[in-house]
């Protein structure tokens, strides 16, 4: 008999009833150190007091009115995002998947309105993850994502990761946009090289092709800059944001230049819940905190501290790990064993981590994690790795 909750997840036998900062607690009082942060969502940790306060205050005032009316909280968050980024305009969604759908629509509508409706192709890359809708899985293209869900949305060209010659060969008069995660998350914590990102920008400028950055996982301070693309000196035309922007409240956004968004006029897109007062009140507080130079510098410093500890861990367990990759507090441990084995061994140490592709274990802690908690996390990872060192082959 099927479970009352559709069984599309292979869930761990853990249920948490409360959390604070980087810690979660089960009903029987078990405490777990969380290096997943809800998959890069809880940017300020669990039950962050600042977010609890603003959410509670907004909940006492107004929850939902719909986008038929002006929403002051939405305007505040949009203004903060525009002020801090390349963007001129913002549309709010409930998730990264919804942000992907709008980004794709925006790029194709742009060319339609320019009198070039044949420009519908979007170049994407091996290892990509852009969400679970039919458009997003077609963009990713991997067998794991698309098998059994055909026919797929047409118009995507899938290329090898970080291969600029492949991009040059693939761009044609039918290319609408290039869609890329500056740091792949599900794909194994793989940063695109600066040279690759800069070459993509050059191709974009030469051909008019729009650049779409998916910063759903790598954005909102995770790499030590507000958005990961800032490290490369390259800006997009359209950007997808979600996860950390709501600090745990479901929220996403599409940011765009005025030019790229020019086709999205009244009636071309909408959302019932997107940009609701609750989500935007929380998001505005997250932006207020995360966008400050002091906060981002602290994330950068924490990333360096954690990486140094992880390099020592790799050296101590050469049969389990082979390297560390990523930026800031978006780090991956390249494993010589299945990452799922390390996740399981971590559970025995009351430690939570997240697997990814290419044999990588993701470490995505709250951006507010302390040095003491990072050191404790690595100690627990060391114990988990030691159990695997001694595990019979």
Strand content: 15-25%
In quaternary terms, these chains amount to single chain
Label the structural class.
alpha/beta
Report the order of strands and helices.
EEEHHHEHEHHEHEEEHEEEHHEEHEEEH
Largest sheet: 7 strands, mixed
**What is the strand tally?**
17
Q: Give the spatial strand order of the biggest sheet.
A: 4-12-11-10-7-5-6
Ordered list of secondary-structure elements with their pairings:
Elements: E1 16-20, E2 23-26, E3 31-34, H1 37-40, H2 49-61, H3 72-84, E4 89-93, H4 96-113, E5 121-125, H5 134-140, H6 143-146, E6 156-159, H7 164-170, E7 175-180, E8 183-184, E9 190-191, H8 194-207, E10 210-214, E11 238-241, E12 252-256, H9 277-290, H10 293-316, E13 321-327, E14 330-335, H11 339-348, E15 351-352, E16 354-356, E17 360-363, H12 371-389
Parallel strand pairs: 3-15, 5-6, 5-7, 7-10, 10-11
Antiparallel strand pairs: 1-2, 2-3, 4-12, 8-9, 11-12, 13-14, 14-17, 16-17
Report on the architecture of this protein.
The chain is built from twelve helices and 17 strands. The strands form four sheets. A seven-stranded mixed β-sheet has the order 4-12-11-10-7-5-6, sandwiched between helices. It has a four-stranded mixed β-sheet with strand order 1-2-3-15. 49% of the residues are buried. The protein is globular. By secondary structure, the chain is of the alpha/beta class.
Keywords:
single chain; 393 residues; alpha/beta; seven-stranded mixed β-sheet; four-stranded mixed β-sheet; 12 helices; 17 strands; 19% strand; globular
